[in-house]
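Narrative of activities, Objective 1.

The group set out to show that a structural description can be obtained from nothing but a protein's sequence at a throughput compatible with the screening campaign. Below is one input-output pair from the validation batch, recorded exactly as produced.
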Amino acid sequence: MYDLSIIIVNYNVKEFLLNSLSSLYKALGNINAEILVVDNASDDGSIELVEEKYPSVIQCKNKKNVGLRSATIQA
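Output recorded for this entry:
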């Protein structure tokens, strides 16, 4: 059980996503948190970079851009 869940919806904004994740990890300190990224079929390398630099981030990889309102996380 986590104290905090953070969900980020991403679509082709790799640098913003990496900056956000970096800031979050610095700010979280000892807070027991999970970070989830819902990626809407980015083709800018976002998924690969998150996997490489932040392997603890849970990713939902949509096959098409379903937008913010329709973005869902499927377990």
